[in-house]
């Protein structure tokens, strides 16, 4: 039987609650399939690890991760004890960059049984492809002087290779979906990086005759995702813009607690990392009320990447089943616990 070795990093806060739930679901699916199994190695990295060892993960953490098929991560962050830039740069960004997970894929889709906060959401089904390795999230820059003379400089770094890679991935995806692609820009305000982005988009998309293409400024796009999300399909954006739009994607679905994400090493040279959009939610950690669906849907993205798309579809309909049956956590105005949602979902999988 095929065994997938998964480096499992529950992380902090609700990550520790939702990761085991998603593991149970994925194990149930593997059992139903009968052709493969998961081997979950739990790596206790994150803020607790930092408080004990002074680092978010061991020095040879990346080397350890390289030995696995994929990485399944919950969330990291314990903002009261560890500054967020340390937890983010010491683990997540280190892994994304060190393992060349250059593409971040984040679907936002109106699920059956979910109430969008929008009055007229339409039947939207968007995938945001976010450049994941450079752009505005760069450590080029610094701070100097103090007091009223203090200066902060944060440089954005756009390479032709990185930009082309993200846009080409998005074009391929759009070709397989509804053949519509929208590039997110801000070439009026950012006068170097974004005209460059637009040029690369133009070069790449011109090779795809079948695609219907458009561009929108990030500020307008933020509004469009709220006013008319059903008009979009594949949306390609830089690191910062994609980050912002995917929180909107989560919000218009009904809760950030259900939004999934994948950090892909497209060439499959290193493992990819699957993690939900949400963070460690310290405000509800330990209460047993975290929504497990974001982590579970993230599991579907991992199944898809491993080539089990049919099981992935099955998982998505099981997610919709719990929502239609009103077995929902508090963030979706329900009263079910984290475990109750997962139990109902697994019971449905087993009898369907
Ligand atoms: P957050 O996503 O943790 O929480 C935002 C709001 O959404 C909170 O009210 C929270 O209760 C709610 N929420 C999030 N996930 C939920 C779920 N599954 N079920 C029910 N409600 C949910 O974002 P926030 O508060 O900005 O960050 C908290 C910590 O998480 C920080 O340390 C931050 O750096 C970290 N973080 C980590 C991420 C990661 O590891 N990928 C991503 C985003 C934030
Ligand atoms: Mg974000």
UniProtKB/TrEMBL annotation:
<keyword id="KW-0520">NAD</keyword>
<keyword id="KW-0479">Metal-binding</keyword>
<dbReference type="InterPro" id="IPR011829">
    <property type="entry name" value="TTC_DH"/>
</dbReference>
<dbReference type="InterPro" id="IPR050501">
    <property type="entry name" value="ICDH/IPMDH"/>
</dbReference>
<comment type="similarity">
    <text>Belongs to the isocitrate and isopropylmalate dehydrogenases family.</text>
</comment>
<dbReference type="Pfam" id="PF00180">
    <property type="entry name" value="Iso_dh"/>
</dbReference>
<dbReference type="GO" id="GO:0009027">
    <property type="term" value="F:tartrate dehydrogenase activity"/>
</dbReference>
<protein>
    <recommendedName>
        <fullName>D-malate dehydrogenase (decarboxylating)</fullName>
        <ecNumber>1.1.1.83</ecNumber>
    </recommendedName>
</protein>
<keyword id="KW-0464">Manganese</keyword>
<dbReference type="InterPro" id="IPR024084">
    <property type="entry name" value="IsoPropMal-DH-like_dom"/>
</dbReference>
<dbReference type="InterPro" id="IPR019818">
    <property type="entry name" value="IsoCit/isopropylmalate_DH_CS"/>
</dbReference>
<feature type="domain" description="Isopropylmalate dehydrogenase-like">
    <location>
        <begin position="5"/>
        <end position="345"/>
    </location>
</feature>
<keyword id="KW-0560">Oxidoreductase</keyword>
């Amino acid at each position: 039987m095929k065994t997938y070795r998964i480096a499992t990093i529950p992380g902090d806060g609700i990550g520790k609650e939702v990761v085991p739930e998603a593991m149970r679901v994925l194990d149930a699916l593997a059992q139903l399939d009968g052709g493969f199994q998961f081997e979950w190695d739990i790596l206790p990295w994150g803020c607790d690890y930092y408080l004990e060892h002074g680092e978010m993960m061991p020095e040879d953490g990346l080397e350890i991760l390289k030995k696995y098929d994929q990485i399944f991560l919950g969330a990291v962050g314990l903002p009261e004890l560890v500054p967020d830039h340390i937890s983010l740069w010491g683990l997540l960004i280190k892994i994304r960059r060190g393992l060349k997970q250059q593409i971040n894929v984040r679907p936002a889709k109106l699920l059956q049984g979910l109430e969008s906060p929008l009055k007229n959401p339409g039947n939207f089904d968007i995938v945001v492809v976010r450049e994941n390795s450079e752009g505005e999230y760069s450590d080029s820059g610094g701070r100097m002087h103090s007091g009223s003379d203090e200066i902060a400089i944060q440089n954005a770094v756009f390479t032709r290779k990185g930009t082309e890679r993200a846009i080409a991935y998005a074009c391929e995806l759009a070709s397989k979906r509804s053949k519509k692609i929208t590039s997110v820009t801000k070439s009026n305000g950012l006068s170097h990086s974004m005209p460059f982005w637009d040029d690369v988009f133009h070069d790449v998309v011109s090779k795809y005759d079948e695609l219907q293409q458009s561009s929108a400024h990030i500020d307008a796009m933020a509004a469009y995702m709220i006013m008319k999300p059903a008009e979009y399909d594949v949306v390609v954006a830089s690191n910062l813009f994609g980050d912002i739009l995917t929180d909107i994607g989560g919000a218009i679905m009904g809760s950030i607690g259900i939004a999934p994400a994948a950090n892909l090493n497209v060439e499959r040279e290193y493992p990819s990392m699957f993690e939900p959009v949400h963070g460690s939610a310290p405000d509800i950690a330990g209460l047993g009320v975290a929504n497990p669906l974001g982590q579970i849907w993230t599991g579907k993205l991992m199944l898809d990447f491993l080539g089990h798309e049919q099981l992935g579809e099955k998982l998505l309909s099981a997610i919709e089943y719990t929502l239609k049956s009103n077995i929902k956590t508090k963030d979706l105005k329900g009263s079910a616990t984290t475990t109750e949602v997962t139990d109902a979902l697994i019971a449905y999988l087993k009898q369907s």
